[in-house]
Every structure is written in C-alpha cells, then in structure tokens.
Amino acid sequence: MLLRKAYVRIVKTNFMETKQYPFYIKSTVILLGLVLLVHILLGLRDFLVPIGFALIISILLNPLVNRFQSKKINKVLSIILAMLIALVVVASVFYFLSSQIVGLGDNFPLLKQKFGEVLGHLKVWLQNTFGLGIDKQVQLLNQAIDKSKDMLGQTLGTAVGTVGVVLLLPVYIFLLLFYKTLILNFLYEVFAEKNSKQVAEILSQTKTAIQSYMIGLLIEALVVAVLNSTALLILGVKYAILLGVIGAILNMLPYIGGIIAIALPVLMATVTKDGFSTQIGILIAYAIIQFIDNNILVPRIVSSKVQINALCSILVVLLGAALWGVPGMFLSIPVVAILKIVFDRIDYLKPWGRLIGDEVPTRHLGQRFAKRQKKKIIDEEVVGEIKDY
C-alpha cells in the first residue's frame, strides 16, 4: 500500500513538472493578472499611499530609534523622540516656504498686472505670426478651462486625500516602528527555513537601498536648492530663494520635475523683467546645474544603491503618476528598487532584474546562442562522421 502511494505521488509529480501550457494561455493569464493588479492599486490608493510613505519614513527613522534605545531609553519614548525631530525639520522647511509665499502674495496685484501685459503681447504675437484672431484665442482658452474643470476636481480630491495622509502618517510610522520585530519575524516565518538567508539578504539590502536613496535625495535637493537660489540671485530674479527651493523639490521627481523647475523662474522673469536676457541666463544656469546634478551628484550620492536605468525610471515615474498622481511619482523609484532587489535573488525573475538595472551589456545573447547552436551542430556532425568511420 505504501509503495503504491509513493508510486502515485511520483507519477503526479512528474506529470505536474512536465505539463506545459501554450504561449497564448500564459500571456492571457499574465495580462489578466496585470489588469487585476492595476485595478487593485487604483482601488486601494487611499490606503496604500500613506502606508508607502510611512514605510519609507520609518526605515529612515529606524537608525535614530536604535541609537536612542542603545542609550537605555524606552522604546516608545525613542520612537516619539525620533518622530519629533523629523517633525521639527519638516515644520522648519514649511515655515520657510510659507514666509516666502507670504512675500509673494503681497506683490501679487503687481505680478497680475504685468502678467496681463505679457499675455496681451502674446495674443498680438500669435495673431501676427499664425493669423489666430483674438476671439479664436479666447474661444480656445475657454475650451481649455472647461476641460480643466475635471482636473481641478481631481486636484481638490488629491488635496483632501493629502490631508488624510498627513493625519494617518504619524500613526502608521509609530506602529511600524513599534511592531518592527513582529513584522520581521512574520516575514521570516512565512517563507521556508531554507530561504531564510535570501530573506535576510533582501530585507537588509532593501533597508540599505531605501536609506541610501532617500538620504542621498535629501542631500542632492539641498545642494541643488543652494545652486538654484545662488544663480537666480545673481541674475536678479524676484523670489529667487523660493523658486530655487521649489525647483530643488521638483527636481526630486526624476526627469519630469526638472522641466517644471526651469519653467517657473523663466515665467517669473518674463513677468517681472523686460527683454529676454534674464530668461536666457536662467536656461544657461539651470543647464549647468542639471549637468552637475546628473553627472556628479546623482551618480555619487543618489544612484550608488538604486541602480535603475533611465528608461525604466521615466516609465515607472509616469506609471506612478497615472496610478497615484504626485505621491505615486515619489514612491515609484523606491518601489522599483525593492522589486529589483527581489528579482536579483530569484532565479526565474533575474531577467527582469537585469532589464530594469543600469548595467548595459556589450553583446546580446542572440549572438552567444547562435554560436552555441552552431558549435552543437558541428559537434553532432563530427560525432556522426566518427560513427560512420
């Protein structure tokens, strides 16, 4: 009886291992899985966004909490102290930005008047250059405003969601730090004991990658803010410090934020100054800053642990914006960095890890496979000739 059960088990195992499904079935299942995943991500946006930010912030605060605990401070008190320090830093940045924005609001009527003058010159230029009448321009502008009402509603909804994130974020951060050991034990227990080494490597590298990426991103933003503000002050652009800091924050969005960061001071110079020399100076200065940022700061400070190629970075940022808006743009790179770490540790997912990585191969595998196939054919011919002989 035992032999029969063992035989049946072996037959079933061999049958399951040898059963292959056609490509169209596999591709259909994968596409349906992706559609279901996207639907879940969209539906759970309000839940996953604060969890994602809380997880990143808790990983950043974890070394500070451990340092407090090493000084014999209670765990709860250590977490509270670390969160208070983070709150003071964030509040200082917001206070600085709000004080600058108040100064901008005092001069808003003058800026509005000059912007109206610039807009009037633009209408005349469009009419003389493209033959587009003033009435037609007004009609197109009204159509654009009507189409943007839905976008405004989405923006207000995002703002309301942001308030919810701000309220829930401290609670999530505290609980994640408090139950850190419980969560880590669960991750070890949920996988087989033989995979514990891989789990430990993934968790360690994930923590290191997120900490290195976020700290590097903050250092990069600080340096870029100083460079932006200095350049704008030299060029005599109004609200140079405010625009420089906003530009540095926008620059944290890969590739897309940099374009918006350049557009804001150019628009301010167009409204407040005559001629185009200042705008040209801004473009030259920001081009130099972007060169320094992309070739010195990012490779040495930010990308040392998060090795993702430029194409993948752009695609995931756009995908994050489509799924979760601006929060998705910020969360996309850390999420992909975690996925790459996981992909590199699992054999059948390693091709995906190489696809999103920044290592560019010098030869494609088709040439290697062709040479192997050619060598195999030659070997078979030689073996056949020897047998015939």
Topology record:
Blueprint: H1 2-18, H2 23-43, H3 45-70, H4 75-106, H5 108-130, H6 134-178, H7 180-190, H8 196-235, H9 240-250, H10 256-272, H11 277-302, H12 310-343, H13 350-356, H14 365-388
Characterization of the model:
The protein has 389 residues and is mainly alpha-helical. It has a domain at 48-134 and 165-190. It is built from 14 helices and no strands. The chain has helices at residues 2-18, 23-43, 45-70, 75-106, 108-130, 134-178, 180-190, 196-235, 240-250, 256-272, 277-302, 310-343, 350-356, 365-388. Helix 4 packs antiparallel against helix 6. The longest helix is centred in the middle third of the chain and has 45 residues, at 134-178. The radius of gyration is 28 Å and the shape is globular. It starts with a helix and ends with a helix. Mean pLDDT is 75; it is low at 151-156.
Keywords:
single chain, 389 residues, mainly alpha, 86% helix, globular
Q: What composes the largest sheet?
A: none
Count of individual helical segments: 14
| Unreliable residue runs | 151-156
Please provide the count of β strands: 0
Q: Globular, elongated, flat, extended or rod-shaped: what is the shape? A: globular
